[in-house]
Amino acid sequence: MSIFQLRNEELRRFPRVMGIVNINDDSFSGDGSLDVGESLNLAKQMIQQGADIIDVGAESARTNRGPITIDEEIARLRPFIEAYPALVKAAPARDALQIQRPLLSINTWRPEVVKAVLEMGEIDIINDIGGLVELDNAQLCAGTDASLLVMHTVGEPKVPHLSQMYDDVWGAMEEFFDDRLHKIEGCGLDREQVILDPGIDFAKQRLDNLRIYAEIERLSSYDLPVLLPISRKTVIGETLGIEEPQERDAGTVACLVRGLAAGADIFRVHNVKAVADCIRVVSAIHQARPTASSM
Hints:
Structural class: alpha/beta
Oligomer: single chain
CATH superfamily: Dihydropteroate synthase-like
Mean pLDDT: 88
Order of helices and strands: EEEHEHEHEHEHEHEHHEH
């Protein structure tokens, strides 16, 4: 059976749910909080609802908000990271389909922050939205058991790239991943520590995003875990004419179903319960198919 490794733990390719926790007050979806207690309670709730991974970030990726300082980002993350092991220990027992210890992912791109959080505790994933222009974060992860999520994008984070155009978005994305994986192997990071993210809504137009969803199977050629960011995305709002992100959960589930059919491994979402329930129903339907021996 195909597996991938995170924190030296073998995980079957049962679709995994990554719950989004924002320790900020300017999240695009309006669900962030600077109160670390509220953030921990949200993470606890997501774990109970079926999250296998908690992805916590201290800075909104919104390009119409200025960046916070490195020190502020570290200060926001520290109490959450330090409290997370106790939260996991106190969580109710998980069923056989769930990862037994919910993994912790840190959403950041600055090497100074990556270095600091890796020194704070047991970090399973560094979710780098910076496009890995430099290899600092890969080199930092290479000395640990943490996996590195490499997201396709163009240009600097926190800067709008609204005019970015592609003659062939898939050709550009595959060229990007080929380049990054070649460089990663050269800096000592094990290929088994890498997760790919097509970067929906990052430096892409509506049609680019829809084309990525339409052909997401193409990423399977890398034989690496694929994270599909589906939650309340701008492309959903543009397609449905819904301006308010929190009203886009039905569209999110539609993207989930497409991703499940394509074999994506991890789904990053705000509404964990809806997505976890959908995955279980779809998986149960697939398992109910008669086998050749039973026909």
